[in-house]
Design brief:
mainly alpha; two-stranded antiparallel ribbon; single chain; 218 residues
Length: 218
Amino acid sequence: MVLRKLGLHRRDDGAPAWWVSFLLVAALALVGYGFILQPGQILYSPHSDILAYHLGAKEVLWRSLEAGRGVPFWRSDQLSGGPAFTSPNALYTYPLHVLFYLFPPPAAVNWTVWLHLVLGAVVLWELGRALGLGPWPRLLMAAAALFSFKVLLAVYAGWLSLLPGITFFPLLFATLFHLTERPRLWNALALAAVGALCLHEGMYSSCTTADGFSRRMP
């Protein structure tokens, strides 16, 4: 509540402008994580789920699309088979996994991870704006999100199905703050869209947490 009271009056003046902040975030992402985008390589660690699960799940999708069968509902490459479309880790309908529809999984996975890292920083920037912080504190929040320990752990562990929740959970609070300050249709639709995205990712606890938080707000 203290943070929310401090953010009653937004400060959008000063430098850097929003587009300068986004360019700086992208530059930081290229400096810190540019190695992820090297062609012909795949993110790897001894404990990564990317090799253990996600590449196989996305390969099933890619081969099914190439064969003209559409999104697969079942995968037969594991023992006696298992669910594909309905698997909570597959995320075949998750919007930011669209690259897996356009490129083979080894070519799409690194760009998908990098995109989530950049978007996570942008989301924290937007949360700072919703709290009424100035441009420089917002930029600091974005940089902290870009190189936070939890994000690094998720990338190391290859949590491709959990990375979306880490990325967009703060946006749930940002849209909630916007709606409580300015109860308009657009802000309500934005909150509903972010909430639906979190539910789609399986982040049910994040939605219930935000709901409980909103009930305590004046």
